[in-house]
Design brief:
The chain is of the alpha+beta class and about 450 residues long. The chain folds into three domains: about 10-190 and about 355-445, Aminopeptidase (3-Layer(aba) Sandwich); about 200-240 and about 290-350, Alpha-Beta Plaits; about 240-280, no CATH class. It is built from 15 helices and 18 strands. It is globular and about 80 Å long.
Length: about 450
C-alpha cells in the first residue's frame, strides 16, 4: 500500500532532534552512562497513538531501547527495521563554537553532539514512522522502528542484548541504520554511498614492563614509560599492507573518477602514497578503507613523581579489514614491537571481525528507486564504513543490513567526515527533511 502523499515535516523533525540532543545521553563506555531511558521516554510519548505497537526494553537500569511496529498483513512479506541509536559520545565544550547540548538552530542548521552521529536519522526515522501510522499505512510487510541504546560503546546494553534475547521483537529481513547517503559529486552525476559493510574492531591493551627505581637516579634504569614511548612511536610509524577488496573496488569504479584517480586508488602499491595528495577527509577514508589501522589512544603510567614506572598500560584501537582474524592482528603487533615484544604483554579487549551484506538485494533496488528521484537523479554506490555500527549484530544473523540516509548538498563529504565525533557537529534542516521523506518512500516501496 503506498504511503500518504508527502507533507513538509521539517519543523517536526527539527523539534525531535533538538530534544534528543538536549537529553544528552552521553555514553562514556561505562554501564552507568548513557541513560538512554530519557530519550526512550520522550520517543514513547511522541509515538503513542493509533497504528503503532510500542514496547520498551531495559536490560540495565537506565539503558533503555524502544521498539515501534506497524504490523504487516502478509506473514510472507519482508520485514524492514529502521534502527537509530540514541546515545552519543562525550563532547568537550572548549572546542565548540556553541553549547554541544544546546541544540541551537542557526541559519537552518541544528548544532549539537549527535546531530550527525546519528540523531538526525534516529529523529527522521521516528517522524516518518509516526506519520506512516497516522496516514493509515497498512503494508503487506512489517515495519519496525528501533531506537537503541549503547551503540557508541560495544552495543552490550542495546543491539547485542536485543538480538540475543529479544529477537521476536526486532527480527527483520532487512535493516537500515547509519550512515551513508552523503552526496558525492562526480563528472557523471551525484553518487550516494550505501554502507554495505564495516571494518572489524580489535581493541587491545599493551602492558609494557619495566623495573621500579628511584627517579633521582635514572641512569641505565629500566623505565617502562620510556619503553612505552618507543612502542607508541613504532605503532605510529607502522605502514601495513594495502588491500584492494571488492567493496572498495566497486566504490571506486562506481564513482567514475578520472583515470589519474582510479588508477592509484585501485593500485595496492600506489594508493598509500596517493593519499598524501588527497584532501584530508577523503585521504583518511581511502587509507582506512584499504588498510588495517592502528591508533594508540589511552595510556596509564606511573605512581609518583620520584618513582621510575615499572609498568605502563597502553590502549590501542585497531580496525581490521574483511577476512582478517584476531590472530593475524596479534601477529602484526608482535612484528611491530620487534625486539620489545618480550617486554610487552598483549591483551585483546574486543575481537569483533569485519562484516558485510550482499549488494544485489531487493533493499538495494528499493533504495535506488526512491533515493534517486529525491536526490536529483543520484546513483547509489557501495561503501565500507571504517567505524563500527549495530548492523554487525544483524549481519551475523544473516540479515541484509545497510547504512543509509539522505543528505542535502549543503553537507559535504569532507565536512561529514570531520564532524563524526568531532567539534561543532551539526546538520541542516533540508537533510532532516530529505531523510524523513526517504523512510516513508522506502517503507512504501519495499513493504507494499
Amino acid at each position: 500500500m503506498p504511503a500518504a502523499p508527502a507533507t513538509d515535516l521539517t519543523d517536526e523533525v527539527t523539534d525531535v532532534i533538538q530534544t534528543l540532543i538536549r537529553n544528552a545521553c552521553v555514553n562514556d563506555g561505562t554501564a552507568e552512562s548513557g541513560f538512554e531511558a530519557r530519550s526512550v521516554d520522550f520517543l514513547q510519548s511522541y509515538l503513542a497513538g493509533p497504528g503503532l505497537e510500542l514496547a520498551t526494553y531495559e536490560p540495565t537500569p537506565g539503558r533503555g531501547s524502544l521498539v515501534a511496529r506497524i504490523e504487516g498483513s502478509d506473514p510472507k512479506a519482508p520485514t524492514l527495521l529502521l534502527m537509530g541509536h540514541t546515545d552519543v559520545v562525550p563532547a568537550n565544550p572548549d572546542g565548540w563554537q556553541r553549547d554541544p547540548f544546546g541544540a541551537e538552530l542557526v541559519d537552518g542548521e541544528v548544532w549539537g553532539r549527535g546531530a550527525i552521529d546519528m540523531l538526525n536519522l534516529t529523529a527522521s526515522m521516528a517522524v516518518a514512522t509516526k506519520h506512516l501510522a497516522l496516514s493509515g499505512f497498512k503494508p503487506k510487510g512489517t515495519l519496525i522502528y528501533l531506537a537503541v541504546a549503547d551503540e557508541e560503546a560495544l552495543g552490550t546494553h542495546g543491539a547485542e542484548y536485543l538480538t540475543e534475547h529479544e529477537w521476536d521483537a526486532i527480527g527483520a529481513d532487512y535493516v537500515i541504520t547509519e550512515s551513508g547517503g552523503i552526496p558525492m559529486p562526480t563528472g557523471s552525476g551525484t553518487k550516494l554511498p550505501v554502507i554495505v559493510g564495516e571494518k572489524g574492531t580489535y581493541w587491545c591493551k599493551l602492558t609494557v614492563k619495566g623495573t621500579p627505581g628511584h627517579a633521582s637516579q635514572p641512569f641505565r634504569t629500566d623505565n617502562a614509560l620510556v619503553k612505552a614511548a618507543e612502542v607508541v612511536r613504532r605503532i605510529d610509524e607502522f605502514q601495513p599492507e594495502t588491500h584492494i577488496h571488492e567493496i572498495w573496488r566497486r566504490f571506486v569504479e562506481g564513482m567514475d573518477f578520472p583515470p589519474d584517480f582510479t588508477g592509484p586508488l585501485l593500485d595496492k602499491d600506489a594508493l598509500a602514497g596517493f593519499c598524501e595528495a588527497l584532501p584530508v577527509g577523503l585521504a583518511r577514508q581511502a587509507h582506512a578503507c584499504t588498510h588495517t589501522t592502528f591508533a594508540p589512544t589511552v595510556m596509564h603510567a606511573g605512581t609518583k613523581t620520584n618513582v621510575i614506572p615499572d609498568h605502563v598500560e597502553l590502549e590501542v584501537d585497531i580496525r581490521t579489514l574483511p577476512g582478517q582474524t584476531g590472530d593475524e592482528v596479534h601477529a602484526m603487533l608482535v612484528d611491530v614491537l620487534g625486539d620489545l615484544s618480550d617486554s610487552v604483554e598483549i591483551t585483546a579487549q574486543s575481537d569483533d571481525p569485519s562484516s558485510a551484506s550482499p549488494i544485489e538485494t531487493p533493499l538495494w533496488d528499493t533504495l535506488q528507486r526512491v533515493a534517486g528521484p529525491l536526490a536529483g537523479g543520484a546513483t547509489n554506490i557501495p561503501f565500507l564504513t571504517v567505524g563500527a555500527t549495530d548492523a554487525r549484530f544483524f549481519r551475523r544473523k544473516g540479515v541484509t543490513s545497510y547504512g543509509f540516509g539522505l543528505f542535502s548538498p549543503r553537507l559535504s563529504f569532507e565536512a561529514f567526515a570531520t564532524m563524526f565525533h568531532g567539534d561543532d557537529e551539526r546538520v541542516d534542516q533540508d537533510s532532516l527533511r530529505l531523510s524523513t521523506e526517504l523512510w516513508r518512500a522506502v517503507a512504501a516501496d519495499l513493504l507494499g
